[in-house]
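Revision sheet: structure tokens.
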Amino acid sequence: MVELVLLFCLALAALRTGVKLHAFVAMSNHVHIVLTDVEGRLPEFMHTFCRLSACLLNHYYDRQECLWSPGSYSAVHLVEAEDVLRFMAYLFANPTAAGLTARGAEWPGVISHPDDLLEGDGIERRKWVKRPQFYFGKESNVPAALWLEFSCPPSLADRPRREVVADLLARREAREAEARRKREAAGRRFLGVKGVLATSPFDRARSKEGRRRLSPTVACQNREKRIEVLRERRRFMARYRLCFELFRRGMRQVVFPAGTYGPVRFCGVRAAPIDRDRAA
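Predicted:
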């Protein structure tokens, strides 16, 4: 049931916001998503996914506490094609790196696969996800079923899809082999599929998450390109603060920089159009 809930919420959030999904994994206490925010609506996507999945799973397990940790999510801009490949491989191998299953493909929870990107090569990879049969009322306007599709990232569109998939499979295997080697050297075993399934959904981690750690917003191995992107983000923030101050002083015709979300959604301000090619 958890798998159905997460997949349906993912599909609904993508449908409502125009987000293009590329990879997804739901671990025991967090999720990883690689996506393209085509319309600059990532906050709305995350709000829809987290809110609806929390409502459904709390209802299913008859619980009332927060399902997701309070606070903002971590959004990292993957600048170049190599960065996208690296993080997608990290996502696919995450269950193995965490010591849960010897291979990511064995993860009994929700996880996409490199082969999902082959849709369009004569192979139908879309998943028909039905709406959960609880929580929703008879008059609900939420669709009874949705298509869930994982597409190839735009930065990799110039490469044959089978080549991209083969590259991701090789990278995943390399990461998993390294994780197995380290675990064997430490004399530790993987929890395994049976161990994962036997874990109570109400268990909590015993260790505490580190505090005051850096939370990167950009991932780019090319140093010059990374510096350029960070400078561009600073220019965006400077322009945003200026527009916000002018708007606060009563200048309602001010045009916020492209990518502005909150003021556009909640205050009705205008923003410059998003460059779809750059957003991809």
